[in-house]
Amino acid sequence: xxxxxxxxxxxxxxxxxxxxxxxxxxxxxxxxxxxxxxxxxxxxxxxxxxxxxxxxxxxxxxxxxxxxxxxxxxxxxxxxxxxxxxxxxxxxxxxxxxxxxxxxxxxxxxxxxxxxxxxxxxxxxxxxxxxxxxxxxxxxxxxxxxxxxxxxxxxxxxxxxxxxxxxxxxxxxxxxxxxxxxxxxxxxxxxxxxxxxxxxx
Length: 201
Prior knowledge:
Strand order of the largest sheet: 5-4-1-6-7
Shape: globular
Distance between the termini: 33 Å
Strand content: 15-25%
Largest sheet: 5 strands, parallel
Number of helices: 6
Low-confidence stretches: none
């Protein structure tokens, strides 16, 4: 029940906006495992990052939009999320000229700051921001701030939902579940991060 109460307001804050005027899709990394086997390669994406990338690849192909992947090497034994994601997009058939990588960001704030710089350099004025629904409110805080300063409009495209947006009450919610505990922890992390982002203004 706690997962529903904490997570639902975050995941329902933004709805998926169609990229009718978007010039680029900015997709945020969601974690990587540097030494994980991935066919003949090494380095894989964690579940949130993989879900985000799959959604971005689909949209990029449907709307012929470039994809800007933002995500660096967060941990010393990890890998650059953007470089792993780039390799996967190429394997999925997205052409190299449609892929932009930003490999320095290690936080959501840095995702926004470095993406803003790249968008300014390339003349993008309309951005479709793609990340997990739970993470979208905090991401929009930073992206509207940093890209807004450059006169760039940002619209949200949440994905990787953990809760049914229109789910009705289910007695199972009253029974402790490991998945619900994970969602509760992630939601609390987002609320703390949003408070920190507000105080950093």
